[in-house]
Design a protein that fits this description.
The longest helix has 19 residues. A hairpin with a 4-residue loop joins strand 6 and strand 7. This protein is globular. With about 240 residues, it is α+β, with helices and mostly antiparallel strands. The protein has two domains: about 160 residues, 2-Layer Sandwich (Dihydrodipicolinate Reductase, domain 2), CATH 3.30.360; about 45 residues, no CATH class. The protein has an eight-stranded mixed beta sheet.
């Protein structure tokens, strides 16, 4: 944290453009979600990876989870109010798995899980609001939006006369217009690192504010430190 704050201060003194490499913001699925204007009330993130024998001098919170911590802050747009974390060391001296429940000041909540001791890689993000559900699979570059269709009110009224068993047997909620499924077109946008670098170069040349500021990076780091510190207090 002292080093991060020193970098921020140096950039401010020199009036330099400073960004932090949170490349997940430039994932095509994330860009689509922002274009939709989707503001979630609940977010669930999973980032699981096989053990890679790298970054063993730090735990999984700083190695992997920190990227999703930035994402949920970015999506929710509110400061974190409380943290409830759990985790432990499995293969190294630091935590190799961690899970945290975040409550934000605006009432939104998020569950974030990270592991570097898994057999298969997983990078999933699920978001819920009062109007829609969004599912992103960053590993497969696939996204889906589920929301109320044009016949939601009419269909819901009709379903009120059915038994629970009859409702459960209904499989035509989409074709009947009650629900609308929108597959996010992510083809041809699979170079988030290139997009991040091009954006930063543009910010430097134009003197505009970058997508991920130094303050954003510091906030994610402070949150990661808070989570890791809570995990260290637990017996494993």
């Amino acid at each position: 944290l002292p080093s991060a704050r020193a970098i921020l201060a140096a950039a401010e003194r020199g009036r330099a453009t400073l960004t932090v490499g949170h490349v997940e913001r430039f994932q095509p699925g994330m860009r689509k979600v922002r274009e939709l204007g989707f503001v979630p009330r609940f977010v669930e993130c999973q980032r699981l990876a096989p053990f890679s024998f790298r970054s063993t001098d730090i735990g999984v919170v700083h190695d992997l989870m920190i990227h999703d911590l930035d994402l949920v802050r970015y999506l929710v747009g509110s400061p974190v109010k409380s943290v409830d974390a759990a985790g432990g060391a499995i293969l190294t001296e630091h935590e190799d798995m961690a899970s945290v429940r975040l409550v934000f000041e605006n009432g939104a909540r998020a569950n974030v899980t990270a592991s570097r001791a898994s057999l298969q890689p997983t990078r999933r993000l699920r978001m819920f609001s009062s109007s829609a559900y969004v599912s992103l699979d960053m590993h497969k570059n696939y996204g889906l939006v589920v929301k109320k269709g044009p016949r939601w009110k009419e269909g819901r009224s009709a379903l009120s006369n059915l038994t629970p068993e009859e409702i459960a047997a209904r499989t035509d909620l989409v074709s009947s217009g009650m629900l609308e499924l929108v597959e996010l077109d992510l083809a041809g946008h699979e170079r988030p690192l290139q997009a991040e670098l091009e954006h930063f170069l543009g910010a430097v040349r134009s003197g505009t504010r970058p997508e991920v500021t130094g303050e954003d990076g510091l906030a994610a780091l402070e949150l990661a430190e808070r989570i890791a510190a809570e995990i260290r207090t637990q017996a494993w």
